[in-house]
Amino acid sequence: MIMFKRITVSALAALLVLPSLPVSAATGSYSEKHEVVYATLDANGSQEEMYVVNNFTMEKPGDITDFGPYTSVHNLTNLEEINQSGNKVEVTTEEEEFYYQGDLEGQDLPWDIRVSYKLDGKKVSPEELAGKDGSLEIHINTKKNKQAEDVFFNHYLMQISLTLDGDRYENIQAPEGTVANAGKDRRVTYTVMPEKEGSFVMKADATDLEMEPIEFAAIPSSMSIDAPDIGGVKSDMTSLSDATAEVNRGVGELKNGITQTNNGAASLYDGSVQFRNGINELSSGSDELVQGSARIQSALDEISQSVSGSGGGSLGDFAKMEEGLRQIAGGLQEVENGLVGLKDQYSQANQALGQSIDAIPGYEITEADIQKLYESGADKAVVDKLLETYKAAQTVKGTYAEVREAFGAVAPALDQSAGALSDMSANLNGMADQLSSSLDNVDIDESMKQLQEGLGQLASQYQSFHAGLKDYTGGVDQLAGSYSDLHNGIAGLTNGTSELENGAAQLHNGTSELASETSDLPTQIDQEIDKMVEEYDKSDFEPVSFVSSKNEKVGSVQFVIKTESIKKPEEKEEAPEVEEEKNFWDRLVDLFK
Length: 593
Fold this sequence. Notes:
The protein has ten helices and 17 strands. Among the domains are: 99 residues, Immunoglobulin-like, CATH 2.60.40; 270 residues, Substrate Binding Domain Of Dnak, Chain:A, Domain 2 (Up-down Bundle), CATH 1.20.1270. The protein is an alpha+beta fold. The N terminus is likely disordered. The longest helix is centred in the middle third of the chain and has 80 residues. The chain is rod-shaped.
C-alpha cells in the first residue's frame, strides 16, 4: 500500500514535470513591427522615465527575436516568459498580435523640451502654481536634441496639447495655436513641423490653479503633399506682372514728358530773362522818353505862343521858325526811332516767352492717375515733387493765359505811338517846307494866321499824346515791377522741373527693376511651391527603429510624451480606528455573553 502510494506520487510528479521539459519550438516570423515610445517629463520638461511598447503582427507563430537596450522587459500578451540577453530579446508566441514592453534608461528623446511658467509677470516654479490665482503664462520651447538620432527630428511632426479646465481658466490666448472645446474643458493645440523648432506662449486667467499634463505626440509626417491648384493665383500674378510692366511704361512716358517739361521750363526761363531785360530797358528808357516828350511839348507851346503874340514878323523870324520846326520834327523822329527799337525788343522777348510757356505740356493728370502712381510702389517723396511741379507749371501756364492779351497789346501800342510821332514829325517838316517855299510870294499875314492855327492844333494834339505817353510809361514801369515776381516763379519752376527730372529718372529705374523682378512671377510661384512641397513632403520616409538599428520590418514608430500634472496636495484623512482582531477564544467567550 505504501509502495502504491509512492508510485502514484512519483507518477503524478512525473506528469507535472513533463510539460516543463524544454521543447524545440519552430522559428516564427512577423510582417511588421510597431514601436510606441512613452516618456514622462517633469513639469519643466526634464526627462524622467521612458519605456517602449513593441507590437508584432505575426505571419507564423514561433520564436521571434528583437533588439533593444532595455533594463527590463514585460510580456503584455500572455504569461510566456521573455528571454533577454544583453540587447537581444527572444520570445515564443502563438498569438496573431504580440505585445511586450521594454524599459529604458539614459535614452535621449529626439527633442529637447523646455517648459516655464509666469504668474502675474513673475517667473515661478511649477510647485508654486498649484492653487494660485492670477494671470498665467506658459512658455513651451522645442528644439533638436543634439545627443539623439536626428532622423526623427527631421521627419516627424509634433503636436503639443494642453487641456484646461473651463471652470479654472478664462480669457485663453494662444496666438500660434488653436483653442477648441472638449466638453467643459478647453484644448489648446500647437504644431511643430519637421526640421523646425517650436516656441509658443499660452496666456490665461487662472483661478485655484491646477493643470493636466502637457502632451507631446510625434508621428511621421509621411503624408503625400500635392501641389495646390494655383491656376487662379497664377492668372492674377500674370495680371499683376502685366500691370507692373504697364506702370513701368507709363512711368517711362511720364519721365519723357517731364524731360520735355524741364526742357520747356529751361527755354521758358531763357525767354523770361530776355523779356525781363527788355521790359526793364523799356522801363529805364521811359523817364528819358517822357522828359524828351515834355521838352518837345514845351517847345511847341513856346513856338505857338510866340507866333500868336507876334502878330507878324520879319523874314528872319520866319527862317528861325522854319529851323525850329525842323528841330522839333527831328526830335520827334528820334523819339519815334526809340519807340520802334523798344517795340522790336519787346516783341522778340514776348515771342520767346510765349513759345516757352506754350512748350509746357497741357495734359491733365486725374486723381485716378495720381492714386495709381502712389500704389505703384514709387517713392512718395518723388511723386509729391512730381505733383508739386506739375501744379506749378500749370499755374504759370494759366497765369500767362490770363495776361497774354495785355502783353500782346504792348507792341501795337508802341506801334501806334510811333506812328503818331511819325505823323507829327511829317506835319512839322511839311509846315517848315511850306514856310520855306512861300517866304517870297506869300502874304505874310495870311501865312502867319495859318501857321498859328497849325501850331495851335499841333500843340493841342501833342499835349494829348504826351499825356498818353505818361500813362503808357507808368504801365510799363508797373509791368516791369510785377514781372519780376513772375520771373522768380519761372526760375523756381525751372529748378523744380530739374529736380523732378532727376526724381522721375530714379522712379523709372525703380519701376524698371520692379517690372524686371515681377516679369516671371508665375514661374517664381511654381518654383516656391515645388520647394515647399519638397520640404514638407516626407512620403518617401522609411521608418527606422528608435531602440536599435538591428530591428527589421519596422512599420511605424510613435512618441507619446507627457509632463507631470500640477495638482494641489491632497488633504490627509484621519485613519479610522482599527479594532483589534479577536482570536478564537475571544470569539468563543463572546458567544456566551
